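Before relying on records like the one below, remember that each one covers exactly one chain. Contacts with other chains, cofactors or solvent are not represented anywhere in the record.
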Amino acid sequence: MSGATSVGLSDVACPAATTCFVAGASGNGIGHTLVEQWNGTTWTQIASPDAPGAIWNGFTAISCTSATHCFAVGNYNTDVQVDGSETSEWTLIEHYS
């Protein structure tokens, strides 16, 4: 998220009183997946890879059954048309354990 000019959070899941996860996207022209974890005191960004070859990635929802078992879902795009509209949108699902 460092250097990002935009950040959007889409969903939150709290599997325990002191454990929450948020999911969304951050970017500076190219969007990257974003997941952060709350430990009861501070938020920490955790690794969430982008889809290979994607120009934009983002999560729209997250679900966690425990602090070590989450799924984040969203989409990614692999190219942009001349008018700026995105094409080739694909589903993105990631698992955190």
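The radius of gyration is 14 Å.
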